[in-house]
Amino acid sequence: MNSINKGLILFTSLLVPVTGYTASNTLYGDFRYSFNSIDNDVDSTLSGDNNASRIGLKGSTEEVDGISAFYHLQTGAA
Fold first, then answer.
1. What is the mean pLDDT of the chain?
2. Dihedral sign, CA of 16, 73, 53, 27?
3. Would you report the helix, strand and coil content of the chain in percent, each value rounded to 5?
4. How far does CA 23 lie from the centroid of its chain?
5. Distances (CA, A) of 29 to 42, 52, 53, 67, 69
6. Which residues contact 23 (CB under 8 A, 6 or more apart)?
7. For the segment 13-43, what is each residue's pLDDT rounded down to a tens digit?
8. pLDDT tens-digit readout, 2-15
9. Which residues contact 57 (CB under 8 A, 6 or more apart)?
10. Model confidence, pTM
11. How far is residue 58's CA from residue 13's CA, in Å, rounded to a whole number?
């Protein structure tokens, strides 16, 4: 299993208990990937690179007596 799949499994396992207790959740992500083409008249190459892609979860809740809490979990996808 590659590192992206392991990271998503871990993130999902953390997501399930957190979403049951909070009032406001936001799942977000940023996919940054580039394709690079090199042609030097002898050889041509096409490669792809991950440029800091990430996924995260943030949220907040208001508890009893006006006390509020927030959280922000983020991980990079390699």
1. 75
2. positive
3. 25, 55, 20
4. 21
5. 39, 11, 8, 29, 22
6. 59, 60, 61, 62
7. 666 555 555 468 888 888 888 888 888 888 8
8. 666 666 666 666 66
9. 11, 14, 15, 18, 25, 26, 27, 28, 71, 72, 73, 74
10. 0.47
11. 15
CB contact at 8 A, 75 and 56: yes
User: What's the burial of 35, exposed, middle or buried (CB within 10 Å: 0-12/13-18/19+)?
Assistant: exposed
Q: For residue 57, how many other CB atoms are within 10 A of its CB?
A: 20
3-state DSSP call for residue 69? strand
Distance CA 32, CA 14 (A): 24
The structure tokens listed for 21 are 């207790």
Q: Residue 67 carries which DSSP code?
A: -
Cβ 20 vs Cβ 59: under 8 Å: no
